[in-house]
Automatic annotation (TrEMBL):
<keyword id="KW-1003">Cell membrane</keyword>
<feature type="transmembrane region" description="Helical">
    <location>
        <begin position="48"/>
        <end position="76"/>
    </location>
</feature>
<feature type="transmembrane region" description="Helical">
    <location>
        <begin position="88"/>
        <end position="111"/>
    </location>
</feature>
<keyword id="KW-0472">Membrane</keyword>
<keyword id="KW-0997">Cell inner membrane</keyword>
<dbReference type="Pfam" id="PF02653">
    <property type="entry name" value="BPD_transp_2"/>
</dbReference>
<protein>
    <submittedName>
        <fullName>ABC transporter permease</fullName>
    </submittedName>
</protein>
<feature type="transmembrane region" description="Helical">
    <location>
        <begin position="204"/>
        <end position="223"/>
    </location>
</feature>
<keyword id="KW-1133">Transmembrane helix</keyword>
<feature type="transmembrane region" description="Helical">
    <location>
        <begin position="155"/>
        <end position="173"/>
    </location>
</feature>
<dbReference type="InterPro" id="IPR001851">
    <property type="entry name" value="ABC_transp_permease"/>
</dbReference>
<feature type="transmembrane region" description="Helical">
    <location>
        <begin position="287"/>
        <end position="305"/>
    </location>
</feature>
<keyword id="KW-0812">Transmembrane</keyword>
<feature type="transmembrane region" description="Helical">
    <location>
        <begin position="117"/>
        <end position="134"/>
    </location>
</feature>
<keyword id="KW-0813">Transport</keyword>
<feature type="transmembrane region" description="Helical">
    <location>
        <begin position="12"/>
        <end position="36"/>
    </location>
</feature>
Length: 320
């Protein structure tokens, strides 16, 4: 009797392979500048808001959905946090931003689950609506961060909050029934409905969490900028999604959705972005190179996973 070989999950290791390849290329091309202490700290500093927003978005992605409102939520929640801190007190900054983010996420979840609107269309419409509200609000007012608020623009504070978020929401996603439900919906939503699970409630909670964490990310964006701006958070949702796809998180959701992949994907994206900046090319050229590399990474990952799946199927057939 032949001893079966242990199958390697290519989808689990590809994010690490891509990260090491891009990091190695960045080290070689920049002469090691990318590993300078100040540069590494800058990469981490830039990555924190994207990581926070991504941890929230992953609940929606696990169900096979998407949430492209996080960029607009960052702008609106960050502005609401700044307004609350300046007019009520510093203590109100986090509650205001979290409340705004969670409220938008709750609305997304209700529309998507109760009215069966596709998540992409719902969150796209919400993205436009929120951005319009932010533009209207900031036409007549300017919110500049005071000294107490600017103290939050500290890497130690950001890392501490990011670590707490990762521990709490990582545990919820990986080890609680709710997290299992989100992944199971991504695998087979109809089967989940037959088990008696309230799929609508799971979706509402998932999108609420996504909005809540985007609200927290909004605080760090506004203090980093030094004040509220109507362009805050613009494009963040696309970058977060690129980080996920770069990290081999499946677009259809399901069991392949993992937070550790998101962490690797975020660091890979910002290592690439930072490396190109250090090389000193123009923004247009860097944008082109960034796009080409990301497309190649996605193609290589998809091909590698498909070939691995075919090998596993052939091996299983041969053993039977």
């Amino acid at each position: 009797m032949k001893k079966s070989k242990k199958n390697i999950d290519i989808g689990a290791v590809m994010p690490l392979i891509i990260f090491f390849v891009i990091t190695l290329a960045a080290v070689i091309l920049t002469g090691g500048q990318v590993f300078a202490v100040n540069n590494i700290l800058n990469i981490i500093n830039q990555a924190v808001p994207y990581l926070l927003a991504g941890v929230g978005m992953i609940f929606a992605v696990a169900m096979g959905g998407t949430d492209i409102t996080c960029g607009s939520i960052i702008g609106l929640a960050g502005t609401a946090g700044a307004y609350a801190a300046l007019n009520i007190g510093f203590w109100a900054m986090f509650p205001a931003a979290i409340l705004v983010g969670a409220a938008v996420g709750l609305l997304n979840g209700i529309v998507i689950s109760k009215f069966k609107v596709p998540s992409f269309m719902c969150t796209l419409a919400m993205l436009l609506a929120i951005r319009a509200v932010l533009n209207w609000w900031l036409q007549s007012q300017v919110f500049i961060c005071n000294e107490q608020m600017l103290k939050l623009d500290n890497l130690g504070i950001k890392l501490l909050i990011a670590l707490v978020v990762l521990i709490i929401f990582g545990y919820i996603f990986r080890f609680t029934p709710f997290g299992e439900y989100t992944r199971a919906i991504g695998e087979n939503e109809l089967a989940m409905e037959f088990t008696g699970t309230s799929v609508s409630l799971v979706k509402i909670v998932a999108y609420t969490l996504s909005g809540l964490l985007a609200g927290i990310a909004g605080i760090f964006v506004v203090v980093r900028l030094g004040g509220a701006s109507n362009t805050m958070g613009a494009g963040v949702e696309m970058k977060v999604m690129l980080c996920m796809f770069l990290a081999s998180i499946p677009v259809q959701g399901g069991s392949g959705t993992r937070i550790y992949k998101l962490i690797i994907g975020v660091m890979t994206y910002f290592m690439l972005d930072n490396g190109l900046t250090l090389l000193g090319g123009t923004s247009n050229v860097n944008q082109l190179i960034r796009g080409v590399i990301l497309i190649l990474a996605l193609i290589i990952t998809r091909v590698a996973i498909e070939k691995n799946e075919m090998r596993n199927i052939k091996r299983a057939a041969a053993e039977n």
